[in-house]
TrEMBL record:
Name of the featured protein: TIGR04100 family radical SAM protein
Domain Radical SAM core residues, every copy: 20-210
Organism: Anaerovorax odorimutans
Pfam annotation, one family: Radical_SAM
Family annotation (Gene3D superfamilies): Aldolase class I
Keywords for the protein's UniProt record, in alphabetical order: Iron, Iron-sulfur, Metal-binding, S-adenosyl-L-methionine
Length: 210
């Protein structure tokens, strides 16, 4: 399976690009790999975000390195801890969950994953049950109101079947994580935003435009 990578990844430096701050959150950047190549992706526009000068990794950090990087921060000082960087966190789901378990043992700060919702296609199995008791919040990028539009905007490796997989994942993850949200980017047409909002309503999950 081909996974889309940013060519500039080799310019990244291991350092403040593993754990960084943005707004009131503490973010964990574990990979630059992604199944999508979204037209709007911020990594196409800038190397850094928030407290990180660059989020490009020269290699993926070991779990021990992520935990060591987290020790430089007081988790209690942040609204939540979010797995989100310049790649799809689910590409390293087992490692993400290992870090999340460490966080659960050492802080009461809520832990969230920002994901494109394609983990089931990545691994060929249901992955939502793996999050139970470990992840407090999941934010899923829907970004379009139908499969055709999603394929044209996000260019997923898995093609048009990706959209139905995302909807299935949303329904499934609700059984294991209490706080589930669907998000869309503000650059899509207004009617598409409204249709996505209706999809979120029908699925009984939160909806946000970012």
């Amino acid at each position: 399976m081909e996974i889309l990578l940013k060519e500039r990844q080799e310019n990244g430096k291991m350092g403040n690009n593993i754990v960084y701050t943005y707004g009131g959150g503490l973010y964990i950047n574990m990979t630059n790999r992604c199944t999508n190549k979204c037209e709007f992706c911020v990594r196409q526009m800038t190397d850094g975000l928030g407290g990180a000068d660059s989020l490009w990794l020269d290699r993926e950090p070991e779990v021990s390195e992520v935990i060591e990087a987290l020790k430089a921060f007081r988790a209690e000082d942040y609204e939540e801890i979010i797995f989100c960087g310049y790649g799809e966190p689910a590409m390293r789901l087992d490692d993400v969950l290992e870090v999340a378990r460490y966080l659960k043992e050492h802080t009461d700060t809520k832990v969230r994953i920002n994901t494109n919702g394609l983990a089931d296609l990545i691994y060929g199995k249901r992955t939502a049950p793996m999050l139970e008791g470990v992840i407090d919040r999941v934010s899923i990028s829907l970004n379009e109101a139908d499969a055709e539009a999603y394929d044209a905007l996000c260019h997923p490796t898995f093609g048009k079947e990706s959209y139905d997989a995302i909807l299935t994942y949303i329904r499934d993850v609700k059984q294991y994580v209490e706080d589930v949200a669907v998000s869309v980017v503000s650059c899509i047409p207004k009617d598409a935003v409204e249709r996505c909002g209706k999809i979120a309503e029908d699925l009984d999950v939160k909806f946000k435009v970012r």
